[in-house]
Amino acid sequence: RVLAAKVPPGLREKSLKSFWIPALFITRQTKILLVNPRAPISSVVPQFDKLVLKGVMVMKKKYILLISAVLVAAVGIIGVYLLTRPTILGNMSNEYSEPATTTSNISFAGEAGNRIKFVFDSDVISGNLDMTLYDSDGNAVYTLDNAAELVAYFTLERSDTYTLAANCDHFAGTYKIFVYLDKVDLSAASGD
Q1: N or C: which end of the chain has fewer CB within 10 A?
Q2: pTM of the model
């Protein structure tokens, strides 16, 4: 192999030994060609073996192929992420320092077969906090467990507008909930 390197301005032949060249390229088969930094590599080729230009071109092709492969992989990974990440349908969070009895809710449209992901976090100091999903007719279709932290999934049985209600009964504390449309259906993979 041939490695062509341009001599930095001010480098003399005496200081050639201290000239840094990456160890990755130095092998017994490597020829090192030092060129005037202002001279294009093609103008030096007539003075030296034609392998110099071929070696430089092969190195450029390898780097172009490597960079292209890395870019294709990055675009693929980003594409998969964008296609499979959950879509946020809504969120709510509240903090009550004194006991309160109130209801907060978020609504979203869903289609039959949509898999909904609930991410819930709470710190209950006192009272009760119930999270219930209702359809447009007011029927309770799903109730989240009363846990400090929870990730739960629910598959919608019909297309409708749904409302998630946080019912606080003499509740003091904090809660946060995020509702997502989960684009990855794991039930098909697990056989459910």
Answers
A1: C
A2: 0.55
